[in-house]
Design a protein that fits this description.
Layout (H helix, E strand, L loop, with lengths): L21 E4 L3 H11 L5 E4 L8 H4 L3 E2 L9 H18 L10 E5 L2 H16 L5 E4 L3 H4 L9 E5 L3 E2 L2 H14 L3 E3 L4 E7 L2 E7 L2 E4 L3 E3 L5 H6 L8 E10 L9 E3 L3 E5 L5 E5 L3 E4 L2 H5 L1 H10 L4 E4 L23 H4 L9 H14 L8 E11 L6 E4 L6 E5 L5 H17 L28
Parallel strand pairs: 1-2, 1-12, 2-8, 4-14, 12-21, 17-18
Antiparallel strand pairs: 3-7, 4-6, 5-6, 9-10, 10-11, 13-16, 13-17, 13-19, 14-15, 15-16, 20-21
Helix pairs in contact: 1-6, 1-12, 3-6, 3-12
C-alpha cells in the first residue's frame, strides 16, 4: 500500500524527448500539479522523476489538507488549493479519499489557547469557519479521549486525502492531458548558455528547453548548489505509522503536543508524534545554522539531532556535491529517499495514542515509515524565479505543508513560468529573503 519504493514497477515510461517548452524536475505534488496547469494552457511539459512518482514526501505525509494554523501569507494560496483539490479529484475520476472532515488542534494550556486566538484573527480576515471551543466542549468534537484539555481550535471545512492515491491519480490526469512523465530518469545538470536555460542533461541524454522548474523536495538544494544557487534548505526526518482498522472515534484529523492522528479511507488511523522531527547534522546544517536560530528559539523542543546523515542522503557527509553531466549523479545513487522510521518515535506514537485513547490499548501498527521533509528556516516555501539564471524557477521548502497547498502552488507556478499575474502576493516566498538582509520570521510549527 505505502510507501512507494524503487522496487515498485515503473508506471510512466515515456521516451525522452529532444525538446520541451518546460521541464519539471521532481514528481511530487508540486511538480505534478504545475504540469497539470501548464498542460491546460497547451504548453508542452516534460516531468522527470529520478525514482517513482510521489515516492518520497508526497506519499509519506499525514494526508491533511488544511487552512487552519497556516502562515498568514500562505493562507490565500491554501484557500485556492482547497478548491482545486475538489476540482482535480473530480477531473481525475478516481477516489483519492478526499473528505471534508475537519482539522482540530487540541490545547493543553491557556497559553495554547492564546496562540489559537491569534490565528482566529487571521481566520476571520479570510472568512474561515475556524472556531474555538472550551474544555467542556472538546468531547463534542472528538469522543473518547482520556485527557482533559483546556480547549481546542477546529476548522470543519478542512479536508483529508490519501497521499499515496492522490498524487499518482493526478499524475495519470496530467498524462491524459499530454504531459510527458518519465520515471527512473534523473536530471544530472542544467545546460546554461549566456545566462539562460538552454536545456537539461538527464541520465538518458539532453532535452532542449528554455524553462526549468526545480521541484525536487529534499533534493532541491543539492541540485541547485551545483549550479551556484544557495538555498538554506535542510531535510528533517518525520516518522509516521498506520493502525489497522479501528472503530471510528473521529472522522477528521487532530493533534496535540504528543500525538497527531487522522482517519484513513481504509478505516485505520495515520499516527505521528505531535510536531517532533529529527535533523541529521551534515555540511549544510553547519553552513545554514545561523539562519535557523530564530526557528529553533521559537520551537526549541520540536527537533532532535543526530551527528550524521546516512550515506547518500541530501545532506550526508559523503554525498557528492559536484559531478559532471556525463557521470552518475547522487540522484541516481539514491532513486528513492527512504529513511528508516525512528524506534523512539514509534514508541512515542504508541504511548501517546494509548494514553489518549486507553480503550484501544491492544492497537497494533499495520505499517510504519518515515519521510524527509524539505524544511526552511521560516517554515514557508521558496516559490520564485531563480536570478540571475533566466528561465529557471524553484518551488521547494514546503516544510511539511506541501501536500495540502500543492495544487495552489502548482497553479501559481504555472502562471509564474508563463509570465502571467499569479493572483497572490509572493513576496514572503522570494528566494532573496535569505540574502537581502531581511529578518527571518518563523512561521507556524505545524
Amino acid at each position: 500500500m505505502f510507501p512507494f519504493s524503487e522496487a515498485d514497477p515503473i508506471r510512466f515510461s515515456n521516451a525522452v524527448p529532444k525538446a520541451s517548452e518546460v521541464v519539471i524536475i521532481g514528481g511530487g505534488i508540486i511538480g505534478v500539479s504545475t504540469a497539470i496547469f501548464l498542460a491546460a494552457r497547451n504548453i508542452q511539459v516534460t516531468l522527470l522523476e529520478k525514482g517513482r512518482i510521489a515516492a518520497e514526501q508526497s506519499s509519506r505525509n499525514w494526508g491533511w489538507i488544511r487552512k487552519q494554523g497556516r502562515d498568514a501569507d500562505e493562507l490565500p494560496i491554501v484557500i485556492e488549493a482547497c478548491r482545486l483539490w475538489q476540482q482535480l479529484a473530480e477531473e481525475s475520476g478516481e477516489d483519492i479519499g478526499l473528505r471534508q472532515t475537519g482539522v482540530t488542534y487540541l490545547a493543553r494550556s491557556e497559553r495554547d489557547m492564546a496562540g489559537f486566538a491569534d490565528f482566529m484573527k487571521i481566520a476571520a480576515a479570510h472568512g474561515l469557519d475556524t472556531r474555538l471551543v472550551d474544555g467542556a466542549q472538546v468531547s463534542s468534537v472528538i469522543e473518547g479521549m482520556a485527557r482533559r484539555f483546556a480547549g481546542a481550535m477546529t476548522t470543519p471545512s478542512d479536508m483529508r486525502a490519501e497521499p499515496w492515491l492522490a498524487v499518482p491519480a493526478l499524475a495519470r490526469l496530467a498524462g491524459r492531458r499530454g504531459v510527458t512523465i518519465i520515471e527512473n530518469c534523473a536530471v544530472r545538470t542544467l545546460d546554461i548558455a549566456a545566462g539562460r536555460i538552454a536545456g537539461v542533461w538527464t541520465e538518458r541524454g539532453k532535452i532542449e528547453t528554455s524553462n526549468v522548474l526545480v521541484a525536487g523536495g529534499a533534493w532541491s538544494s543539492l541540485f541547485l548548489k551545483k549550479h551556484g544557487v544557495s538555498i538554506p534548505q535542510l531535510s528533517v526526518r518525520a516518522t509516521v505509522a498506520a493502525t489497522a482498522p479501528l472503530p471510528e472515534f473521529h472522522a477528521g484529523a487532530a493533534v496535540d503536543d504528543d500525538i497527531a492522528f487522522r482517519r484513513r479511507q481504509d478505516g485505520g488511523y495515520t499516527l505521528a508524534p505531535g510536531g517532533s522531527n529529527l535533523l541529521y547534522i551534515g555540511p549544510d546544517a553547519f553552513r545554514h545554522a545561523m539562519k535557523y536560530l530564530p526557528a529553533l528559539m521559537a520551537h526549541p523542543l520540536g527537533t532532535r539531532y543526530l551527528p550524521a546523515a546516512p550515506s547518500g542522503f541530501p545532506d550526508g557527509w559523503s554525498t557528492r556535491r559536484d559531478w559532471a553531466a556525463d557521470t552518475r549523479s547522487p540522484f541516481e545513487h539514491m532513486r528513492v529517499l527512504n529513511p528508516a522510521p525512528g524506534r523512539s518515535e514509534l514508541a512515542s506514537i504508541l504511548r501517546g495514542f494509548k494514553t489518549l485513547f486507553p480503550q484501544f490499548d491492544n492497537v497494533h501498527l499495520k505499517t510504519t515509515w518515515a519521510g524527509m521533509i524539505d524544511a526552511m528556516p521560516d517554515a514557508v516555501p521558496v516559490v520564485d524565479r531563480v536570478e540571475p539564471i533566466g528561465g529557471l524557477f524553484v518551488a521547494t521548502g514546503m516544510s511539511g505543508h506541501g501536500f495540502g497547498i500543492g495544487p495552489g502552488i502548482g497553479r501559481v507556478m504555472s502562471d509564474l513560468i508563463q509570465g502571467n499575474e499569479t493572483g497572490h502576493d509572493l513576496h514572503r516566498f522570494r528566494l532573496s529573503r535569505f540574502s537581502d538582509g531581511s529578518s527571518i520570521r518563523p512561521g507556524p510549527a505545524i
